[in-house]
Amino acid sequence: MRPDTRLPRRLLLATAVAAFVAAAGLARAATFVVNVGGGGFTTFIDQTSGTNTTTIHVGDTVQWNWMSGPHSVTSGTCQPGGVYGGGCTTDGIWNSSVQSAPFSFSRRFDQQGNFPYYCGIHGSMMIGVVMVEAATGPAPSADFRFQPTGPIVGTTVHFTDTSTGAPTSWTWDFGDGHVANVASPAHFYAAAGSYTVTLTATNAAGSNSNSKVVVVAAGGQTVCRADAATLCLSNGRFQVTAQWEKSDGTFGFGNAVPLTDDSGYYYFFDPSNIEMVAKVLNACGVNGDFWVFGAGLTNVKVTVDVLDTATGVSERYVNPLNTAFTPIQDTAAFPTCP
Questions:
Q1: Which CATH number belongs to the domain containing residue 201 in this structure?
Q2: Of the four listed, 235, 284, 332, 338, which is most buried by Cβ atoms within 10 Å?
Protein backbone atom coordinates (compact mmCIF):
# COMPACT_ATOMS: atom_id res chain seq x y z
CA MET A 1 0.00 0.00 0.00
CA ARG A 2 1.50 3.34 -1.06
CA PRO A 3 1.91 6.03 1.61
CA ASP A 4 -0.35 9.10 1.35
CA THR A 5 1.97 11.90 0.17
CA ARG A 6 -0.76 14.48 -0.28
CA LEU A 7 -0.39 17.81 1.53
CA PRO A 8 -3.10 18.99 3.93
CA ARG A 9 -5.79 21.07 2.25
CA ARG A 10 -4.86 24.34 4.03
CA LEU A 11 -1.18 23.92 3.19
CA LEU A 12 -2.07 23.24 -0.44
CA LEU A 13 -4.10 26.45 -0.58
CA ALA A 14 -1.34 28.51 1.01
CA THR A 15 1.23 26.92 -1.32
CA ALA A 16 -0.96 27.69 -4.34
CA VAL A 17 -1.24 31.35 -3.34
CA ALA A 18 2.53 31.62 -2.83
CA ALA A 19 3.17 29.93 -6.18
CA PHE A 20 0.83 32.39 -7.89
CA VAL A 21 2.71 35.36 -6.47
CA ALA A 22 6.09 33.86 -7.42
CA ALA A 23 4.93 33.07 -10.94
CA ALA A 24 3.64 36.59 -11.41
CA GLY A 25 6.98 38.02 -10.34
CA LEU A 26 5.08 40.87 -8.67
CA ALA A 27 2.32 40.69 -6.08
CA ARG A 28 -0.28 41.78 -8.61
CA ALA A 29 -3.93 40.71 -8.41
CA ALA A 30 -3.17 38.03 -5.82
CA THR A 31 -5.65 36.52 -3.37
CA PHE A 32 -4.77 36.27 0.34
CA VAL A 33 -6.64 33.86 2.58
CA VAL A 34 -7.68 34.45 6.19
CA ASN A 35 -9.10 31.64 8.34
CA VAL A 36 -12.11 32.74 10.36
CA GLY A 37 -12.25 30.86 13.66
CA GLY A 38 -9.28 28.74 12.64
CA GLY A 39 -6.54 27.93 15.17
CA GLY A 40 -8.83 29.05 17.97
CA PHE A 41 -12.54 29.80 17.96
CA THR A 42 -12.26 33.59 18.30
CA THR A 43 -9.39 34.37 15.92
CA PHE A 44 -8.68 35.65 12.44
CA ILE A 45 -5.49 34.00 11.13
CA ASP A 46 -3.89 35.16 7.88
CA GLN A 47 -2.40 32.16 6.09
CA THR A 48 0.63 34.13 4.93
CA SER A 49 1.60 36.05 8.07
CA GLY A 50 0.21 33.63 10.65
CA THR A 51 -1.26 36.62 12.52
CA ASN A 52 -4.44 38.68 12.37
CA THR A 53 -2.74 41.20 10.04
CA THR A 54 -2.92 40.78 6.27
CA THR A 55 -0.52 42.90 4.18
CA ILE A 56 -1.40 43.23 0.50
CA HIS A 57 -1.01 45.61 -2.46
CA VAL A 58 -3.57 47.72 -4.26
CA GLY A 59 -5.62 45.47 -6.53
CA ASP A 60 -5.24 42.35 -4.38
CA THR A 61 -8.15 40.43 -2.86
CA VAL A 62 -8.63 39.11 0.67
CA GLN A 63 -10.75 36.00 1.07
CA TRP A 64 -12.06 35.08 4.52
CA ASN A 65 -12.90 31.39 4.96
CA TRP A 66 -15.10 30.36 7.90
CA MET A 67 -13.43 27.36 9.58
CA SER A 68 -15.80 26.99 12.55
CA GLY A 69 -18.63 28.68 14.36
CA PRO A 70 -20.80 31.71 13.54
CA HIS A 71 -18.93 34.96 12.79
CA SER A 72 -19.00 38.09 10.67
CA VAL A 73 -16.33 40.17 8.97
CA THR A 74 -17.40 43.73 9.73
CA SER A 75 -15.31 46.73 8.69
CA GLY A 76 -14.64 49.14 11.54
CA THR A 77 -12.84 49.27 14.86
CA CYS A 78 -13.30 47.62 18.25
CA GLN A 79 -11.89 49.10 21.45
CA PRO A 80 -11.27 47.31 24.76
CA GLY A 81 -14.14 47.51 27.22
CA GLY A 82 -16.59 45.08 25.74
CA VAL A 83 -16.28 41.39 24.97
CA TYR A 84 -19.33 40.69 22.83
CA GLY A 85 -19.68 43.64 20.51
CA GLY A 86 -18.97 46.35 23.08
CA GLY A 87 -16.93 49.39 22.05
CA CYS A 88 -17.26 48.59 18.34
CA THR A 89 -17.77 51.06 15.50
CA THR A 90 -18.90 50.05 12.00
CA ASP A 91 -17.56 52.23 9.16
CA GLY A 92 -19.97 50.82 6.57
CA ILE A 93 -17.36 49.83 3.99
CA TRP A 94 -18.35 46.18 4.14
CA ASN A 95 -20.15 43.66 6.32
CA SER A 96 -20.48 39.97 5.54
CA SER A 97 -23.29 39.71 8.16
CA VAL A 98 -23.24 36.79 10.60
CA GLN A 99 -22.61 33.48 8.85
CA SER A 100 -21.83 29.94 9.97
CA ALA A 101 -19.12 27.63 8.66
CA PRO A 102 -18.58 26.69 5.92
CA PHE A 103 -18.73 30.14 4.33
CA SER A 104 -16.45 32.37 2.25
CA PHE A 105 -16.37 36.16 1.83
CA SER A 106 -14.08 38.15 -0.51
CA ARG A 107 -13.19 41.80 -1.07
CA ARG A 108 -10.82 43.46 -3.54
CA PHE A 109 -8.89 46.48 -2.22
CA ASP A 110 -8.32 49.25 -4.76
CA GLN A 111 -6.82 51.96 -2.55
CA GLN A 112 -4.02 52.27 -0.02
CA GLY A 113 -4.70 52.38 3.68
CA ASN A 114 -5.31 50.32 6.80
CA PHE A 115 -8.69 48.64 7.04
CA PRO A 116 -9.52 47.22 10.49
CA TYR A 117 -12.34 44.73 10.98
CA TYR A 118 -13.89 42.58 13.66
CA CYS A 119 -16.45 39.85 14.29
CA GLY A 120 -19.88 41.27 15.01
CA ILE A 121 -20.57 38.49 17.53
CA HIS A 122 -17.25 38.38 19.40
CA GLY A 123 -16.34 42.06 19.18
CA SER A 124 -12.94 43.08 20.53
CA MET A 125 -12.09 39.43 21.22
CA MET A 126 -11.85 38.83 17.48
CA ILE A 127 -10.28 41.59 15.41
CA GLY A 128 -8.01 41.93 12.37
CA VAL A 129 -6.63 44.46 9.93
CA VAL A 130 -5.87 44.59 6.21
CA MET A 131 -2.88 46.80 5.38
CA VAL A 132 -2.95 47.86 1.72
CA GLU A 133 0.32 49.12 0.29
CA ALA A 134 0.98 50.84 -3.04
CA ALA A 135 0.81 48.62 -6.09
CA THR A 136 4.14 47.24 -7.24
CA GLY A 137 5.51 47.24 -10.74
CA PRO A 138 4.68 49.54 -13.65
CA ALA A 139 1.31 50.29 -15.16
CA PRO A 140 0.75 48.79 -18.63
CA SER A 141 1.78 50.49 -21.83
CA ALA A 142 -1.29 50.09 -24.02
CA ASP A 143 -0.96 49.09 -27.67
CA PHE A 144 -2.87 47.04 -30.23
CA ARG A 145 -3.08 46.05 -33.88
CA PHE A 146 -6.05 45.30 -36.13
CA GLN A 147 -6.82 43.35 -39.28
CA PRO A 148 -7.77 44.10 -41.95
CA THR A 149 -6.07 47.48 -41.89
CA GLY A 150 -8.41 48.80 -44.61
CA PRO A 151 -11.85 47.38 -43.75
CA ILE A 152 -15.05 48.03 -45.62
CA VAL A 153 -18.54 48.39 -44.19
CA GLY A 154 -19.92 45.13 -42.82
CA THR A 155 -16.62 43.24 -42.61
CA THR A 156 -15.36 42.07 -39.23
CA VAL A 157 -12.32 43.88 -37.83
CA HIS A 158 -10.19 41.83 -35.44
CA PHE A 159 -8.37 43.77 -32.71
CA THR A 160 -5.42 42.23 -30.88
CA ASP A 161 -4.02 43.54 -27.60
CA THR A 162 -0.22 43.95 -27.74
CA SER A 163 0.16 45.92 -24.50
CA THR A 164 3.19 45.42 -22.29
CA GLY A 165 3.19 45.41 -18.50
CA ALA A 166 0.79 42.48 -18.01
CA PRO A 167 -2.62 44.16 -18.05
CA THR A 168 -5.38 42.38 -16.17
CA SER A 169 -8.35 44.20 -17.71
CA TRP A 170 -9.11 45.96 -20.98
CA THR A 171 -11.62 48.57 -22.12
CA TRP A 172 -12.15 49.17 -25.83
CA ASP A 173 -14.01 52.12 -27.33
CA PHE A 174 -14.57 51.48 -31.04
CA GLY A 175 -15.51 55.08 -31.78
CA ASP A 176 -19.03 54.25 -32.96
CA GLY A 177 -20.78 53.99 -29.61
CA HIS A 178 -19.83 50.37 -29.03
CA VAL A 179 -17.41 49.08 -26.40
CA ALA A 180 -15.87 45.79 -25.27
CA ASN A 181 -13.90 44.56 -22.27
CA VAL A 182 -12.00 41.51 -23.48
CA ALA A 183 -8.35 41.36 -24.45
CA SER A 184 -8.75 40.88 -28.20
CA PRO A 185 -12.28 41.56 -29.51
CA ALA A 186 -13.82 41.54 -32.98
CA HIS A 187 -16.08 44.31 -34.26
CA PHE A 188 -17.82 45.38 -37.44
CA TYR A 189 -18.71 48.91 -38.50
CA ALA A 190 -22.16 49.58 -39.87
CA ALA A 191 -21.22 52.75 -41.77
CA ALA A 192 -18.26 54.18 -43.63
CA GLY A 193 -16.09 56.75 -41.87
CA SER A 194 -13.02 57.35 -39.72
CA TYR A 195 -13.27 55.90 -36.22
CA THR A 196 -10.90 56.61 -33.35
CA VAL A 197 -10.43 53.35 -31.48
CA THR A 198 -9.12 53.62 -27.92
CA LEU A 199 -7.76 50.80 -25.78
CA THR A 200 -7.32 51.34 -22.05
CA ALA A 201 -5.19 48.62 -20.42
CA THR A 202 -5.18 48.31 -16.64
CA ASN A 203 -3.40 46.43 -13.89
CA ALA A 204 -3.05 46.99 -10.15
CA ALA A 205 -0.41 49.67 -10.72
CA GLY A 206 -2.60 51.83 -12.97
CA SER A 207 -3.99 52.36 -16.46
CA ASN A 208 -2.74 53.56 -19.82
CA SER A 209 -4.58 54.34 -23.07
CA ASN A 210 -3.66 54.30 -26.73
CA SER A 211 -5.74 55.39 -29.73
CA LYS A 212 -5.59 54.60 -33.43
CA VAL A 213 -7.80 55.60 -36.34
CA VAL A 214 -9.63 52.92 -38.31
CA VAL A 215 -10.82 54.11 -41.73
CA VAL A 216 -13.84 52.14 -42.95
CA ALA A 217 -14.64 52.40 -46.64
CA ALA A 218 -18.14 52.13 -48.10
CA GLY A 219 -17.01 49.31 -50.32
CA GLY A 220 -20.37 48.91 -52.06
CA GLN A 221 -22.10 45.58 -51.78
CA THR A 222 -21.04 43.19 -49.02
CA VAL A 223 -22.39 39.83 -47.89
CA CYS A 224 -24.38 39.32 -44.70
CA ARG A 225 -23.06 36.37 -42.72
CA ALA A 226 -25.43 35.11 -40.07
CA ASP A 227 -23.79 34.11 -36.79
CA ALA A 228 -24.62 33.87 -33.10
CA ALA A 229 -25.18 37.64 -32.89
CA THR A 230 -26.33 38.47 -36.44
CA LEU A 231 -29.60 38.10 -38.31
CA CYS A 232 -29.61 38.26 -42.13
CA LEU A 233 -33.08 39.41 -43.16
CA SER A 234 -35.07 40.14 -46.31
CA ASN A 235 -33.40 37.55 -48.49
CA GLY A 236 -30.10 38.09 -46.66
CA ARG A 237 -29.74 41.73 -47.72
CA PHE A 238 -29.99 43.33 -44.24
CA GLN A 239 -27.57 42.60 -41.42
CA VAL A 240 -29.11 43.16 -37.96
CA THR A 241 -27.52 43.10 -34.49
CA ALA A 242 -28.76 44.11 -31.05
CA GLN A 243 -26.35 45.12 -28.26
CA TRP A 244 -27.62 45.28 -24.64
CA GLU A 245 -26.28 47.16 -21.63
CA LYS A 246 -27.45 46.87 -17.99
CA SER A 247 -27.39 49.47 -15.22
CA ASP A 248 -24.33 47.82 -13.62
CA GLY A 249 -22.29 48.56 -16.77
CA THR A 250 -22.21 45.03 -18.17
CA PHE A 251 -23.00 44.65 -21.85
CA GLY A 252 -22.93 42.27 -24.78
CA PHE A 253 -24.57 41.29 -28.04
CA GLY A 254 -27.94 39.57 -28.10
CA ASN A 255 -28.12 35.98 -29.29
CA ALA A 256 -29.81 35.91 -32.71
CA VAL A 257 -32.48 33.35 -33.60
CA PRO A 258 -34.00 33.51 -37.14
CA LEU A 259 -37.76 33.04 -37.53
CA THR A 260 -38.70 33.79 -41.15
CA ASP A 261 -36.94 35.29 -44.16
CA ASP A 262 -37.65 38.78 -42.86
CA SER A 263 -37.79 38.33 -39.07
CA GLY A 264 -36.00 36.95 -36.04
CA TYR A 265 -35.58 37.47 -32.33
CA TYR A 266 -32.85 37.96 -29.73
CA TYR A 267 -32.38 36.67 -26.22
CA PHE A 268 -29.86 38.42 -23.98
CA PHE A 269 -29.48 36.30 -20.85
CA ASP A 270 -31.59 33.14 -21.11
CA PRO A 271 -32.61 31.18 -24.24
CA SER A 272 -36.13 30.81 -22.84
CA ASN A 273 -36.54 34.59 -22.43
CA ILE A 274 -37.14 36.49 -25.68
CA GLU A 275 -35.97 40.10 -25.26
CA MET A 276 -36.52 41.60 -28.71
CA VAL A 277 -38.06 40.77 -32.11
CA ALA A 278 -36.77 42.41 -35.32
CA LYS A 279 -38.24 42.55 -38.81
CA VAL A 280 -37.10 44.12 -42.10
CA LEU A 281 -39.96 44.16 -44.60
CA ASN A 282 -39.69 44.67 -48.34
CA ALA A 283 -42.29 47.39 -48.98
CA CYS A 284 -40.91 48.45 -52.35
CA GLY A 285 -44.34 47.93 -53.88
CA VAL A 286 -45.97 50.18 -51.26
CA ASN A 287 -43.78 53.28 -50.88
CA GLY A 288 -40.47 52.28 -52.47
CA ASP A 289 -38.76 51.61 -49.12
CA PHE A 290 -37.63 48.79 -46.89
CA TRP A 291 -39.34 49.05 -43.48
CA VAL A 292 -37.77 48.25 -40.10
CA PHE A 293 -39.85 47.07 -37.15
CA GLY A 294 -38.78 46.09 -33.65
CA ALA A 295 -40.50 45.17 -30.41
CA GLY A 296 -38.94 44.47 -27.04
CA LEU A 297 -39.81 42.99 -23.67
CA THR A 298 -37.03 44.67 -21.72
CA ASN A 299 -35.93 47.92 -20.09
CA VAL A 300 -32.17 47.50 -20.51
CA LYS A 301 -30.39 49.71 -23.02
CA VAL A 302 -30.66 48.19 -26.49
CA THR A 303 -28.76 49.41 -29.56
CA VAL A 304 -30.07 47.96 -32.82
CA ASP A 305 -27.91 48.31 -35.94
CA VAL A 306 -29.35 47.52 -39.37
CA LEU A 307 -26.99 47.48 -42.36
CA ASP A 308 -28.08 47.36 -46.00
CA THR A 309 -25.30 45.22 -47.43
CA ALA A 310 -26.28 46.21 -50.98
CA THR A 311 -25.51 49.90 -50.44
CA GLY A 312 -23.47 50.19 -47.23
CA VAL A 313 -26.18 52.43 -45.72
CA SER A 314 -27.06 51.76 -42.07
CA GLU A 315 -29.59 52.80 -39.45
CA ARG A 316 -29.24 52.72 -35.67
CA TYR A 317 -32.07 52.58 -33.12
CA VAL A 318 -31.37 53.05 -29.40
CA ASN A 319 -33.71 52.26 -26.52
CA PRO A 320 -32.45 54.07 -23.38
CA LEU A 321 -31.51 52.28 -20.17
CA ASN A 322 -34.31 51.78 -17.60
CA THR A 323 -36.95 52.62 -20.20
CA ALA A 324 -39.62 50.23 -21.41
CA PHE A 325 -38.75 49.29 -24.98
CA THR A 326 -40.30 51.72 -27.45
CA PRO A 327 -41.44 49.91 -30.61
CA ILE A 328 -39.51 50.59 -33.81
CA GLN A 329 -41.85 51.44 -36.69
CA ASP A 330 -39.66 52.99 -39.34
CA THR A 331 -41.53 52.91 -42.65
CA ALA A 332 -38.92 55.06 -44.40
CA ALA A 333 -35.79 53.32 -43.15
CA PHE A 334 -34.14 52.40 -46.46
CA PRO A 335 -35.43 54.18 -49.60
CA THR A 336 -33.11 52.02 -51.69
CA CYS A 337 -35.36 49.60 -53.50
CA PRO A 338 -33.95 48.05 -56.67
A1: 2.60.40.10
A2: 284
